[in-house]
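Ticket opened by: R.M.
Priority: normal
Category: complex prediction / small molecule

The reporter submitted a protein together with zinc ion and asked that the result be attached to this ticket for the collaborator who will pick it up next week. Submitted input follows.
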Amino acid sequence: MAVDLLRYAQEAAYCERILAKSGLTVVTATLAQSATPTHWTHYPEGDVYDFESGAHWYYHSHAPLEAAQREASDAAQSEEPEPSEHGHFHCFVRPDGKGGPVHHLIAVSVDSMGRLTRLFTVARHVVDDADISAEGRVALLERFDVQLDYPNYLVNRWLTAVVGLYQDEIAALIREGAERAVRDPKLDVTAQLETTLAQKVSRAPRAEC
Ligand SMILES: [Zn+2]
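Result attached by the on-call engineer:
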């Protein structure tokens, strides 16, 4: 694994370890302590936005019944939750600041234990995304760097590390998703990759010594 990717993998593992030691996961550290999570509600309240990098994210989950009904009425691939999915982090960059256009980069699905399960891209209508070329979107990946304490510093670093670790796969998903969205405008999820951090690390080529 290339040195920078190895660093991202180590950072993601470190964040998970310290969260676990604290009795938390990336999910529980994101949700309000006492709140019962509600489908479609953004967590944390007000989303997370780092004005220095322009990175922006929120976590939410979809109601399975609603997704199933939508799937039954529409052959298009809807943004339905995977059976094992608890929810997902929608990751964006606002290159011109909070008042400027917002561009979705990737959604990061996790299970109820906060473990990565899937990465996916969505059509622009799903997240009110401003138009941009696939290459322009790919170029924004390096801007996704969240250095904030809200809602939790380790969650922000974990998410930054996952996007960095999978930068090549996410770029491929963005390009594939852009092509598929043109061919089928009804798609919600335009491209996806099922993965786990353990798989990613074990399948990566060894770093040359
Ligand atoms: Zn979503």
